[in-house]
Write a structure and sequence with these properties.
Helices cover 32% and strands 38% of the residues. By secondary structure, it is of the alpha+beta class. The protein has a 6-stranded mixed β-sheet with strand order 2-1-6-5-4-3, sandwiched between helices. The protein starts with 6 loop residues before the first helix and ends in an 8-residue tail after the last strand. 20% of the residues are buried.
Amino acid sequence: MTARLSRRRVLHYTAMAAAAGAVASVKGSMPAAIGTAPADDPAIRDFVTKMYQAIKFDRGESLDGNRLRQLMHPGARIAWSTAAGFELVDVDDFIERFVAGFEADGIWSLREHSLGMKVHRFGEVAQVFDTYEAVFNEGEIVARGVNAYQLIKQNHTWKCAALAWSEETPEQPLP
């Protein structure tokens, strides 16, 4: 039997991880047991690049759902901010909503890339805050924001246990 966490509990854990990273960056140091990995940590940077490759698509294509599933832990959750709060879904629900939503909105291409990242790592657990830029319809629409990845290392491979993101807005600009 697989243990399922309530939406409230998952958001609580995500908020706690985000707060821990924010507190550490404000204080300027972290306890000796928790290391700040360089943003160019090859395995973690490679993981983030693979995530961007999985969701990119051109006219007549869609995101690579199989590749995205391979990068995610089987129990992973994905959350994004909306006007009403956060949506929180599993990977298959995300893929279904992503495809349907982009089709409905007339989005026919997506390229997303990292503008910079901060990584906190302890053993086989890492928290990655990645500032991104997304370009839709070959430059027609551009969005920026922050992806927050919670990664776990299994069998020498990083997997995403949770992903949350929030887009930049006039009220919430990127620093």
